[in-house]
Amino acid sequence: MAKTPLTLYLAAPRGFCAGVDRAIKIVEMAIEKWGAPIYVRHEIVHNKFVVDSLREKGAVFVEELDECPIDRPVIFSAHGVPKAVPAEAEQRKMIYVDATCPLVSKVHIEAERHHRNGLQMVMIGHAGHPETIGTMGQLPEGEVLLVETAADVERLAPRDPERLAFITQTTLSVDDTKDIVAALQARFPAIVGPHKEDICYATTNRQEAVKAIAPKVEALLVIGAPNSSNSRRLVEVARSEGCHYAQLVGRADEIDWRALEGAASVGVTAGASAPELLVDEVVAAFRDRYEVTMKTVETTRENVEFKVPRVLRETA
């Protein structure tokens, strides 16, 4: 029986960003340097496949530092941690490696600079997300006010409306964040913004690629984890650009094939913490069921690379 023809549009860029790639390398190099087990506070990146793969190599994932023995190294996830965490590790005389993405660290440095200048911070982010917790934890309690929507801006009660600055979580929707920034600037005209956009290059690039694909397809699949902020934003971007069926899938076995019945064109992308192996798996699943024509929609090329910490580059 002949397979139904289908055009598969692959987004480029997609998948791993430089910060995620660096964080995974840090865990692998730590296991190589110190042997297993290596402890990792929180999922190193938000992807079950990646976490399970590292667990098989000897990584032990915990939520809090007190779950780690003091005689084994611990790694802090790419999302960043509050200042209290490395302080506790030092107090316990633990070996630790900080895998915080350098672009998240940039936001931390920015927040501290504004704090030294006497400004109270407003953070645009998602409550409870590890990056938001880590960034807010760089400053004393009460010094960072969190807003998630433009409506939240109206409820803000800053210490001094004339002495404010704002920062953002790096994995947000570019378009939604613009609306919140506009609301902040309208209510607090003196508010100070970042010198450079806080939303990271990879988040922006993946959203732009989805915007280019969405009008061409009847459905779009985002490969990523439910707790991955940047992956969930890709689904939202696709829907806002007119692709009514946009879904998040962890792996090929999560695809709802019934929902795709009758579709002649489908888009595929991957969040910044999803490996290309999972993209290949999804493409193979489509080839099993359809006569696939592949098209890549490339909106930009990335050549960013971040070095791992010196302690891992040094020989034991």
From TrEMBL:
Binding, [4Fe-4S] cluster: 17, 101, 200
Keywords associated with the record: 4Fe-4S, Iron, Iron-sulfur, Isoprene biosynthesis, Metal-binding, Oxidoreductase
Cofactor note: Binds 1 [4Fe-4S] cluster per subunit.
Binding site for dimethylallyl diphosphate: 46, 79, 129, 228-230, 273
Enzyme Commission (EC) number: 1.17.7.4
Gene3D superfamilies in alphabetical order: 3.40.50.11270, 4-hydroxy-3-methylbut-2-enyl diphosphate reductase, catalytic domain
Keyword GTP-binding attributed: no
Pathway this chain belongs to: Isoprenoid biosynthesis; isopentenyl diphosphate biosynthesis via DXP pathway; isopentenyl diphosphate from 1-deoxy-D-xylulose 5-phosphate: step 6/6; Isoprenoid biosynthesis; dimethylallyl diphosphate biosynthesis; dimethylallyl diphosphate from (2E)-4-hydroxy-3-methylbutenyl diphosphate: step 1/1
Residues annotated as catalytic: 131
CDD domains noted in UniProt: lytB_ispH (cd13944)
Positions contributing to (2E)-4-hydroxy-3-methylbut-2-enyl diphosphate binding: 46, 79, 129, 170, 228-230, 273
Source organism superkingdom: Bacteria
Entry annotated with the keyword Phosphoprotein: no
Cofactors that this protein relies on: [4Fe-4S] cluster
Catalytic activity: isopentenyl diphosphate + 2 oxidized [2Fe-2S]-[ferredoxin] + H2O = (2E)-4-hydroxy-3-methylbut-2-enyl diphosphate + 2 reduced [2Fe-2S]-[ferredoxin] + 2 H(+); dimethylallyl diphosphate + 2 oxidized [2Fe-2S]-[ferredoxin] + H2O = (2E)-4-hydroxy-3-methylbut-2-enyl diphosphate + 2 reduced [2Fe-2S]-[ferredoxin] + 2 H(+)
Residues at which isopentenyl diphosphate binds: 46, 79, 129, 228-230, 273
NCBIfam families per UniProt: ispH_lytB, PRK01045.1-2, PRK01045.1-4
Family: Belongs to the IspH family.
Function per UniProt: Catalyzes the conversion of 1-hydroxy-2-methyl-2-(E)-butenyl 4-diphosphate (HMBPP) into a mixture of isopentenyl diphosphate (IPP) and dimethylallyl diphosphate (DMAPP). Acts in the terminal step of the DOXP/MEP pathway for isoprenoid precursor biosynthesis.
Protein name per Swiss-Prot or TrEMBL: 4-hydroxy-3-methylbut-2-enyl diphosphate reductase
Species per Swiss-Prot/TrEMBL record: Sinisalibacter lacisalsi
Gene, per the UniProt record: ispH
